[in-house]
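Work Package 4 report. The design task specified in the project plan requires that, given a folded chain encoded as C-alpha cells, an amino acid be chosen for each position. We show below one input record used in the internal validation round.
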C-alpha cells in the first residue's frame, strides 16, 4: 500500500457539514480524503440541473413528478435543501475567514411576507421604516411593536421583561409583556422568528430573532442572503474547493465496499478503485433530522408578495390553519428564487415549499393546497413533491429556514475539534489567518 493512500482523516459525504469540516481540517494541515458515492458535490444538499433533479426525484420513495424536462434544463440549479443565510452568523464568518466567499455570489432576499387566511399575502414589518410606513397598525400598536423590536435587538441579559419567562411560550410572552395584538404576535412568531409553533421557549427564540434583526443592514435592508446557483450545494462545493487547494483528495462516484479497523487504523475499500485507503479517523454519521416534505415548482410568472415591482427572491410563511385543505398544525414555508440567484433562465422562477413531514400523509397531499394558494390560476411548467431525508453528518431536529446553514457551521466546528483532539494535533484556531494575497476587502 502506497503512502498516497494513507490519510489522517477520511470524511464520507460532501454535504455542507462535511465539506466545512474537510476545508477546516485541510487548512489545519491534516491529510484528508473526502468521499461521496454520488458523482456530484453536496450529497443530499446538492444543487442539480433540472434533468439531474428529475432523475434524483424519481428514485425517492413516495415522490411524484408532474411535467417533463424544460428548455435550457442545464440553466436551472435546483437545491435539494433550500436555505437562506443570515447576514450575521457563523456561516458568513466562515465564508470570509476560509476564503470560500471568493468562489460564489450572493443575493439579498428582497421580502419576507406572511399569508393570512382572510387577507392573503401581507407585509411583515421588520424595521422602524416598515412600521412607520404600515397602514395596518394604529399609533399605539406601532409604538408597542417598536418597543419590542428595540428590546429584541438589544442585550437580553438581565432584562426585567424576561424574569421568570425564559422558558414560557414565546407567543404568551409577546402578549403578556408587550400587549401585542394577535395578528402582530403571529407575524413575529412565524415570519420574524421563524418558529414552528407559538409555544417555543422564549429565551432561545429571542436569541435567534436578535441575530436576524442585527443582520438587517449589513449588506442591505434584508437580513438574509441566498447563494447563487442553488445556495447550499454550491456553498458545499466551494468549501470542497478550498479543501482541495489545501491538499485534500476527492473521490466521487465510488461506493464503499468494506471498512475494517485494526489498532489505530481504519482501512476502506472502494468499488472500482485501485487500492484501499487508510486513516486514523473516519468522519461519518447517520442523520437524525426529521423528514421534510418538499415541493419544487417552476413557473414563468412573477410572484406578488406586496412589493412595488416584480419579485426575484423572497419568502412567504404560511402559519398553521391559514389555507383551506392545508394543515392546522404545521408551518409551511415558501422560498422563491428567480434569475437574480443564477438558479433559473431569464423569466423563470423556482418555488420551494417545505414543511415537517408527517408519517401518514404524502408530500403532495400536504403541500398541494399551498402551491395552489400561491399560484392561483397559474399552471406550473413543472412540479415535484418528495420527502427529503438527509443522510450525512447533521445536527438533530428540523431547523428554521434561516438556521440550517449556520447550525451546519457550528456542528462542523465541533467535529473539527473532536478530530483534532483524537489525533492530538497542535491546532488552536478553527480557521487559520489567510495569506495576504488571499484576503479581499469586499467579498460581497
Amino acid at each position: 500500500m502506497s503512502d498516497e493512500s494513507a490519510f489522517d482523516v477520511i470524511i464520507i459525504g460532501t454535504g455542507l457539514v462535511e465539506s466545512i469540516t474537510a476545508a477546516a481540517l485541510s487548512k489545519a494541515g491534516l491529510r484528508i480524503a473526502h468521499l461521496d458515492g454520488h458523482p456530484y458535490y453536496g450529497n443530499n444538499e446538492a444543487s442539480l440541473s433540472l434533468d439531474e433533479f428529475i432523475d434524483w426525484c424519481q428514485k425517492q420513495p413516495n415522490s411524484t413528478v408532474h411535467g417533463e424536462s424544460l428548455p435550457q434544463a442545464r440553466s436551472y440549479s435546483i437545491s435539494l435543501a433550500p436555505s437562506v443565510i443570515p447576514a450575521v452568523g457563523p456561516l458568513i464568518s466562515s465564508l470570509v475567514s476560509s476564503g470560500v466567499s471568493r468562489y460564489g455570489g450572493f443575493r439579498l432576499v428582497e421580502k419576507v411576507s406572511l399569508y393570512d387566511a382572510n387577507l392573503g399575502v401581507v407585509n411583515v414589518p421588520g424595521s422602524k421604516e416598515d412600521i412607520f410606513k404600515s397602514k395596518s397598525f394604529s399609533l399605539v400598536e406601532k409604538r408597542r411593536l417598536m418597543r419590542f423590536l428595540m428590546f429584541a435587538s438589544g442585550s437580553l441579559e438581565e432584562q426585567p421583561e424576561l424574569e421568570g419567562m425564559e422558558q414560557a411560550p414565546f407567543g404568551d410572552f409577546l402578549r403578556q409583556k408587550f400587549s401585542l395584538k394577535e395578528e402582530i404576535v403571529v407575524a413575529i412568531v412565524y415570519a420574524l422568528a421563524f418558529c414552528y409553533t407559538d409555544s417555543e421557549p422564549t429565551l432561545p427564540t429571542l436569541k435567534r430573532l436578535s441575530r436576524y434583526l442585527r443582520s438587517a443592514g449589513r449588506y442591505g435592508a434584508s437580513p438574509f442572503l441566498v447563494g447563487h446557483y442553488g445556495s447550499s450545494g454550491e456553498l458545499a462545493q466551494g468549501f470542497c474547493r478550498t479543501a482541495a487547494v489545501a491538499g485534500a483528495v476527492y473521490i466521487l462516484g465510488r461506493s464503499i465496499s468494506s471498512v475494517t479497523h485494526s489498532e489505530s487504523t481504519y482501512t476502506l475499500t472502494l468499488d472500482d478503485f485501485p487500492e484501499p485507503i487508510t486513516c486514523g479517523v473516519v468522519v461519518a454519521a447517520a442523520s437524525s433530522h426529521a423528514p421534510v416534505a418538499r415541493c419544487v415548482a417552476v413557473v414563468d410568472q412573477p410572484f406578488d408578495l406586496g412589493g412595488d415591482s416584480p419579485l426575484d427572491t423572497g419568502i412567504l410563511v404560511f402559519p398553521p390553519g391559514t389555507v383551506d385543505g392545508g394543515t392546522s398544525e404545521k408551518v409551511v414555508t415558501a422560498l422563491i428564487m428567480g434569475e437574480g440567484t443564477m438558479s433559473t433562465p431569464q423569466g423563470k422562477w423556482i418555488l420551494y415549499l417545505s414543511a415537517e413531514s408527517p408519517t401518514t400523509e404524502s408530500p403532495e397531499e400536504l403541500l398541494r393546497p399551498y402551491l395552489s394558494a400561491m399560484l392561483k390560476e397559474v399552471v406550473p411548467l413543472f412540479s415535484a413533491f418528495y420527502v427529503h431525508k438527509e443522510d450525512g453528518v447533521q445536527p438533530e431536529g428540523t431547523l428554521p429556514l434561516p438556521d440550517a446553514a449556520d447550525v451546519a457551521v457550528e456542528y462542523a466546528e465541533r467535529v473539527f475539534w473532536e478530530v483534532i483532539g483524537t489525533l492530538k494535533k497542535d491546532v488552536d484556531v478553527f480557521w487559520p489567518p489567510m495569506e495576504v494575497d488571499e484576503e479581499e476587502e469586499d467579498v460581497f
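Residues 235 and 262 are 36 Å apart (CA to CA). Validation will be extended to a larger panel in the next phase.
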